[in-house]
Amino acid sequence: MSTWFLTGASRGLGAHWAEAILERGDNLAATARDAATLKALTDRYGDRVLALELDVTDRAAVDAAVNRVEQHFGGIDLLVNNAGHMLHGAVEEVSADQARAQMDVNYFGSLWTTKAVLPGMRQRRQGRIMQVSSLGGLVAYPALGIYQASKWALEAMSQSLAAEVAAYDIHVTLIEPIMFPTGLAAASPQSTPDPAYAHAREALYAGAAGFVPGDPAATAQAILALADAPNPPLRVLFGINGLEALRTEYAGRLAGLEKWEHLSRLAQGNPAQK
């Protein structure tokens, strides 16, 4: 029996994952900003659920929650950083408070929980950390720049972390969902639209038309399979058609860098000259 720590467990993908984790007999520390939203889980699964009210942006509260879970269940085997929101808006439209809140939840919230579980995982020399990123953690579309910036930060931190903790048999995986109807967009803040960026929103919607919405419930079996994989990947896409988008993205990046390599060489200078 494993013990999971899952943030954002009350809605969206997290709610499906919480049910699947408990259905298979594992222990679950489930967090949400309002613990009352987790009552159905505690009523159904009893002592195998520890429902915690948690704001992941509060580092002291995160540390206290992790400590409580470790004492209650005897350790945390799997951390799933799922809490987050998706700020819509062109870069110029987004307010300073909105931008900071986006980074606080999506990046720093995941950083604080990750740092909190690592000492215990290192001591036990085992553990799994699953970071819920996004296809937008690998590419960047118009009108989602600040949201995607938070995911790009999560991607970089997690890739470095994976190399740092592999010696302790701790595996880090970035989960990159593509398109799932979870109500995330409707529940997330929006910038005040400026007509000057109507074209950016239109481009976002046009790009989204190339993706097929997936079944949120199906992701539960995928995350359980990931948890059981002997050698889990650093990155995995949840959903289809993402690989095609990434091939286009990375081919374009390389082509652009090669086209402007003459400036790269100009900037290098001639190291042989003193």
From TrEMBL:
One of its Pfam families is adh_short
**Sorted alphabetically, which Gene3D superfamilies does this protein's record hold?**
NAD(P)-binding Rossmann-like Domain
Task: Name the SUPFAM superfamilies on file.
Answer: NAD(P)-binding Rossmann-fold domains (SSF51735)
**Provenance organism:** Rugosimonospora acidiphila
Family the UniProt entry places it in: Belongs to the short-chain dehydrogenases/reductases (SDR) family.
InterPro entries recorded for this chain? NAD(P)-bd_dom_sf, SDR_fam, SDR_oxidoreductase
- Entry protein name: SDR family oxidoreductase
Q: Which UniProt keywords apply?
A: Oxidoreductase
Task: Return the NCBIfam families for the record.
Answer: PRK08263.1 (NF006114)
